[in-house]
Amino acid sequence: MTAQIEKELSSNGVLRLTLNNPQRRNALSQAMIGALHQAITDASISSDVKVVVLSGNGPAFSAGHDLKEITAARSNDDKGRAFFTSLMSQCAAMMTAIVNCPKPVIAEIDGIATAAGCQLVASCDLAYASDTSRFATPGVNIGLFCSTPMVALSRNVSSKHAMEMLLTGDMLSAADAERMGLINRVTESTSLKALTQEVADKIAAKSSLTLAIGKEAFYRQQEMNLPKAYAYTSEVMVNNMLTEDGEEGISAFVEKRPPVWRNQ
What we know:
Elements: E1 5-9, E2 14-19, H1 30-45, E3 51-56, E4 60-62, H2 67-73, H3 81-100, E5 105-109, E6 112-114, H4 116-123, E7 126-130, E8 134-136, H5 147-153, H6 159-168, E9 172-173, H7 174-180, E10 185-187, H8 189-204, H9 208-222, H10 226-241, H11 244-254
Parallel strand pairs: 2-3, 3-5, 4-6, 5-7, 6-8, 7-10
Antiparallel strand pairs: 1-2, 8-9
Protein backbone atom coordinates (compact mmCIF):
# COMPACT_ATOMS: atom_id res chain seq x y z
CA MET A 1 0.00 0.00 0.00
CA THR A 2 1.29 3.48 -0.92
CA ALA A 3 2.30 5.62 2.04
CA GLN A 4 -0.23 8.32 2.95
CA ILE A 5 2.65 10.69 3.70
CA GLU A 6 5.95 10.97 1.82
CA LYS A 7 8.88 12.16 3.93
CA GLU A 8 12.12 13.81 2.87
CA LEU A 9 14.66 15.33 5.27
CA SER A 10 17.33 17.69 3.95
CA SER A 11 20.82 17.94 5.38
CA ASN A 12 20.01 21.24 7.12
CA GLY A 13 16.96 19.88 8.92
CA VAL A 14 14.06 20.83 6.64
CA LEU A 15 11.54 17.98 6.70
CA ARG A 16 9.18 17.84 3.72
CA LEU A 17 5.92 15.99 4.40
CA THR A 18 3.86 15.41 1.26
CA LEU A 19 0.23 14.30 1.37
CA ASN A 20 0.21 11.38 -1.03
CA ASN A 21 -3.27 10.33 -2.10
CA PRO A 22 -3.80 12.35 -5.28
CA GLN A 23 -6.55 10.04 -6.53
CA ARG A 24 -8.69 11.18 -3.58
CA ARG A 25 -7.37 14.75 -3.78
CA ASN A 26 -5.42 14.18 -0.58
CA ALA A 27 -8.66 13.95 1.40
CA LEU A 28 -8.28 13.93 5.16
CA SER A 29 -9.47 10.39 5.73
CA GLN A 30 -8.88 8.72 9.08
CA ALA A 31 -5.76 7.11 7.61
CA MET A 32 -4.40 10.41 6.28
CA ILE A 33 -5.14 12.22 9.54
CA GLY A 34 -3.43 9.48 11.54
CA ALA A 35 -0.38 9.42 9.29
CA LEU A 36 0.01 13.20 9.37
CA HIS A 37 -0.48 13.38 13.13
CA GLN A 38 2.20 10.73 13.63
CA ALA A 39 4.59 12.51 11.25
CA ILE A 40 4.12 15.82 13.10
CA THR A 41 4.58 14.08 16.46
CA ASP A 42 7.80 12.45 15.26
CA ALA A 43 9.09 15.77 13.89
CA SER A 44 8.30 17.50 17.18
CA ILE A 45 10.70 15.30 19.14
CA SER A 46 13.39 14.82 16.50
CA SER A 47 16.58 16.80 17.05
CA ASP A 48 17.32 16.42 13.32
CA VAL A 49 14.24 18.38 12.26
CA LYS A 50 14.40 22.18 12.29
CA VAL A 51 11.46 23.13 10.04
CA VAL A 52 8.53 21.19 8.55
CA VAL A 53 7.15 21.87 5.06
CA LEU A 54 3.73 20.41 4.27
CA SER A 55 2.72 19.94 0.63
CA GLY A 56 0.46 17.73 -1.47
CA ASN A 57 0.92 15.48 -4.50
CA GLY A 58 -1.43 15.98 -7.44
CA PRO A 59 -3.87 18.78 -8.31
CA ALA A 60 -5.01 19.37 -4.72
CA PHE A 61 -3.25 20.32 -1.53
CA SER A 62 -6.23 18.76 0.25
CA ALA A 63 -9.93 18.73 -0.55
CA GLY A 64 -10.89 18.27 3.09
CA HIS A 65 -12.59 15.32 4.74
CA ASP A 66 -13.21 12.16 2.72
CA LEU A 67 -16.93 12.42 1.94
CA LYS A 68 -17.09 8.85 0.64
CA GLU A 69 -15.75 7.63 3.99
CA ILE A 70 -18.29 9.79 5.80
CA THR A 71 -21.14 8.54 3.61
CA ALA A 72 -20.17 4.89 4.20
CA ALA A 73 -20.34 5.44 7.97
CA ARG A 74 -24.02 6.42 7.71
CA SER A 75 -24.89 2.74 7.21
CA ASN A 76 -23.80 1.99 10.79
CA ASP A 77 -26.48 1.31 13.40
CA ASP A 78 -25.97 4.75 14.93
CA LYS A 79 -26.09 6.43 11.49
CA GLY A 80 -22.43 7.28 11.81
CA ARG A 81 -22.45 9.25 15.07
CA ALA A 82 -19.58 7.33 16.70
CA PHE A 83 -17.46 7.52 13.55
CA PHE A 84 -18.17 11.23 13.03
CA THR A 85 -17.33 11.96 16.67
CA SER A 86 -14.06 10.03 16.43
CA LEU A 87 -13.15 11.65 13.10
CA MET A 88 -13.69 15.19 14.37
CA SER A 89 -11.73 14.46 17.53
CA GLN A 90 -8.82 12.95 15.61
CA CYS A 91 -8.76 15.82 13.14
CA ALA A 92 -8.82 18.45 15.89
CA ALA A 93 -5.98 16.67 17.69
CA MET A 94 -3.90 16.61 14.49
CA MET A 95 -4.50 20.31 13.79
CA THR A 96 -3.63 21.14 17.40
CA ALA A 97 -0.43 19.08 17.11
CA ILE A 98 0.68 21.35 14.25
CA VAL A 99 0.16 24.45 16.40
CA ASN A 100 1.86 22.79 19.39
CA CYS A 101 4.78 21.46 17.33
CA PRO A 102 7.93 23.29 18.52
CA LYS A 103 9.19 23.36 14.93
CA PRO A 104 7.79 25.95 12.48
CA VAL A 105 5.36 24.31 10.02
CA ILE A 106 5.03 25.80 6.52
CA ALA A 107 2.19 24.97 4.14
CA GLU A 108 3.10 24.83 0.44
CA ILE A 109 -0.11 24.94 -1.63
CA ASP A 110 -0.21 24.18 -5.34
CA GLY A 111 -3.85 23.42 -6.08
CA ILE A 112 -7.08 23.55 -4.12
CA ALA A 113 -7.32 23.69 -0.34
CA THR A 114 -10.94 23.36 0.68
CA ALA A 115 -12.90 22.70 3.91
CA ALA A 116 -10.59 20.81 6.30
CA GLY A 117 -7.84 21.27 3.70
CA CYS A 118 -8.22 25.03 4.13
CA GLN A 119 -8.24 24.43 7.89
CA LEU A 120 -4.91 22.63 7.48
CA VAL A 121 -3.43 25.66 5.71
CA ALA A 122 -4.71 27.98 8.43
CA SER A 123 -3.27 25.73 11.15
CA CYS A 124 0.27 26.04 9.78
CA ASP A 125 2.55 28.85 10.93
CA LEU A 126 3.31 30.09 7.41
CA ALA A 127 1.74 29.41 4.01
CA TYR A 128 2.91 29.99 0.43
CA ALA A 129 0.84 29.22 -2.66
CA SER A 130 0.99 29.09 -6.43
CA ASP A 131 -1.04 31.67 -8.33
CA THR A 132 -3.40 28.96 -9.58
CA SER A 133 -4.27 27.72 -6.08
CA ARG A 134 -7.78 28.14 -4.72
CA PHE A 135 -9.21 28.20 -1.20
CA ALA A 136 -12.70 27.67 0.22
CA THR A 137 -14.77 26.54 3.16
CA PRO A 138 -17.67 25.24 1.03
CA GLY A 139 -19.50 23.08 3.54
CA VAL A 140 -22.52 25.38 3.52
CA ASN A 141 -23.11 24.36 -0.11
CA ILE A 142 -23.76 20.75 0.95
CA GLY A 143 -25.65 21.47 4.15
CA LEU A 144 -22.62 21.11 6.40
CA PHE A 145 -21.29 24.34 7.92
CA CYS A 146 -17.48 24.30 8.16
CA SER A 147 -17.53 24.70 11.95
CA THR A 148 -14.19 23.04 12.71
CA PRO A 149 -12.32 24.74 9.82
CA MET A 150 -13.80 27.97 11.22
CA VAL A 151 -11.62 27.63 14.33
CA ALA A 152 -8.34 27.88 12.44
CA LEU A 153 -9.70 30.23 9.77
CA SER A 154 -11.04 32.78 12.27
CA ARG A 155 -7.64 32.85 13.97
CA ASN A 156 -5.95 33.82 10.70
CA VAL A 157 -8.24 36.32 8.99
CA SER A 158 -10.64 39.04 10.14
CA SER A 159 -14.12 38.10 11.29
CA LYS A 160 -15.76 39.65 8.23
CA HIS A 161 -13.51 37.76 5.82
CA ALA A 162 -13.95 34.49 7.73
CA MET A 163 -17.73 34.83 7.80
CA GLU A 164 -17.86 35.65 4.09
CA MET A 165 -15.93 32.46 3.29
CA LEU A 166 -18.06 30.38 5.66
CA LEU A 167 -21.45 31.80 4.65
CA THR A 168 -20.98 31.85 0.87
CA GLY A 169 -18.73 28.82 0.38
CA ASP A 170 -17.18 30.66 -2.56
CA MET A 171 -13.78 29.68 -3.95
CA LEU A 172 -11.08 32.31 -3.40
CA SER A 173 -8.10 32.99 -5.62
CA ALA A 174 -4.60 32.82 -4.20
CA ALA A 175 -4.37 36.59 -4.58
CA ASP A 176 -7.48 37.06 -2.44
CA ALA A 177 -6.17 34.58 0.13
CA GLU A 178 -2.95 36.61 0.36
CA ARG A 179 -4.87 39.88 0.66
CA MET A 180 -6.94 38.43 3.50
CA GLY A 181 -3.91 37.08 5.35
CA LEU A 182 -4.68 33.37 4.93
CA ILE A 183 -1.37 32.88 3.12
CA ASN A 184 1.90 34.79 3.20
CA ARG A 185 2.80 35.06 -0.47
CA VAL A 186 1.80 33.97 -3.97
CA THR A 187 4.17 32.96 -6.74
CA GLU A 188 4.14 31.01 -9.99
CA SER A 189 3.80 27.25 -9.66
CA THR A 190 7.26 26.71 -11.11
CA SER A 191 8.76 28.94 -8.41
CA LEU A 192 6.74 27.73 -5.42
CA LYS A 193 9.02 25.00 -4.12
CA ALA A 194 12.08 27.25 -4.42
CA LEU A 195 10.32 30.03 -2.50
CA THR A 196 9.19 27.70 0.27
CA GLN A 197 12.64 26.13 0.49
CA GLU A 198 14.28 29.55 0.71
CA VAL A 199 12.09 30.53 3.64
CA ALA A 200 12.52 27.13 5.32
CA ASP A 201 16.31 27.28 4.94
CA LYS A 202 16.40 30.77 6.43
CA ILE A 203 14.41 29.65 9.45
CA ALA A 204 16.38 26.40 9.83
CA ALA A 205 19.55 28.45 10.30
CA LYS A 206 18.17 29.98 13.52
CA SER A 207 18.43 28.54 17.01
CA SER A 208 15.90 25.71 17.32
CA LEU A 209 15.47 26.50 21.00
CA THR A 210 14.69 30.14 20.27
CA LEU A 211 12.17 29.18 17.58
CA ALA A 212 10.43 26.76 19.94
CA ILE A 213 10.25 29.37 22.70
CA GLY A 214 8.87 31.98 20.32
CA LYS A 215 6.30 29.77 18.63
CA GLU A 216 4.82 28.58 21.91
CA ALA A 217 4.69 32.14 23.25
CA PHE A 218 3.05 33.46 20.07
CA TYR A 219 0.04 31.16 20.31
CA ARG A 220 -0.30 31.31 24.09
CA GLN A 221 -0.34 35.11 24.31
CA GLN A 222 -3.01 35.38 21.60
CA GLU A 223 -5.64 34.09 24.01
CA MET A 224 -4.66 36.49 26.85
CA ASN A 225 -5.77 40.01 27.60
CA LEU A 226 -3.15 42.75 27.18
CA PRO A 227 -1.77 42.90 30.77
CA LYS A 228 -1.54 39.10 31.01
CA ALA A 229 0.06 38.87 27.59
CA TYR A 230 2.78 41.36 28.53
CA ALA A 231 3.38 39.70 31.91
CA TYR A 232 3.67 36.28 30.28
CA THR A 233 5.90 37.35 27.38
CA SER A 234 8.12 39.40 29.72
CA GLU A 235 8.81 36.22 31.68
CA VAL A 236 9.45 34.36 28.41
CA MET A 237 11.95 37.05 27.37
CA VAL A 238 13.80 36.85 30.68
CA ASN A 239 14.10 33.08 30.46
CA ASN A 240 15.17 33.35 26.82
CA MET A 241 17.91 35.81 27.74
CA LEU A 242 19.25 33.30 30.27
CA THR A 243 19.64 30.50 27.71
CA GLU A 244 23.03 29.75 26.15
CA ASP A 245 21.73 30.67 22.71
CA GLY A 246 20.32 33.94 24.02
CA GLU A 247 23.72 34.85 25.43
CA GLU A 248 25.55 33.63 22.31
CA GLY A 249 23.30 35.55 19.93
CA ILE A 250 23.76 38.87 21.70
CA SER A 251 27.52 38.31 22.06
CA ALA A 252 27.84 37.44 18.36
CA PHE A 253 25.92 40.58 17.39
CA VAL A 254 28.09 42.81 19.59
CA GLU A 255 31.27 41.13 18.35
CA LYS A 256 30.10 41.30 14.71
CA ARG A 257 30.45 37.58 14.03
CA PRO A 258 28.06 34.77 13.06
CA PRO A 259 26.45 33.05 16.05
CA VAL A 260 27.15 29.41 16.83
CA TRP A 261 23.93 27.87 18.09
CA ARG A 262 23.94 25.07 20.65
CA ASN A 263 20.15 24.93 20.91
CA GLN A 264 20.46 25.22 24.68
